[in-house]
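Re: the request from the purification team.
They wanted to know what the chain is likely to look like in 3D before they choose a buffer screen. I agreed to run a prediction and write the result into the notebook, where they can find it.
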Amino acid sequence: MAFCNIGLTPKAGLPRASHQAFADEVRDLQITFATEFAGVLHQQPDASLGGDLDQLHFYQIWRDEDVVGALVPDEEQDDDGARATTSVWRIGFAAGRRMTELAEDRSGLLTGWHNRSRAWHGQAGPHATVLSLGICEQNGIFRGDSNAFLDMLEISPGALHVVHISDEALVPSACVLNSQLHRDPATREAIAADMALGIFGNGIAPRPADFVFAGCALQALNSDPLG
């Protein structure tokens, strides 16, 4: 029914680094609102400031008394014939880790250029995780028509956490994933040194495209998607 972008302010006394919650997704963290009953949604007249003011990060600090809108449910008859209404929201979360800070698109759910996108049910308790690794052709299959995993979350019988990691340079297979899981820092450094020797030590001047390929290949070989 609705979604919003959430900005998290750092907690006092904690470093502004990886210790912060959603440190690498803080600019693309969203909450979705769904409901299982019919009704009429009323937006507060002053809820929208217009234009980019509704999307700017940290532009306004949320207050408990702020109201964006209200859902007035249709009245229904219960088993005793009395009027009854339901007021339960189903909350969901979505987050994206940007490929680059320059690729901002907050126009919809999980829009933008992300090398990792994920969504999960909002209820407390353990969540099962489904992970997809692949090239861009996987997006439509795994993320669904909504682009935000809503189809898969809807059919899940329990709390679910769905993750898609784009791997354009090296499409994962069981063999590749096993190698990535068992590589230690020393092995990664050896791979990087060997590639540098191959590029600069063969007597042929590398072209710009060679550096782009080498960087993408090293990033893929040294990553650990499952970790």
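For the purification team: The radius of gyration is 23 Å.
Please add any questions underneath this entry.
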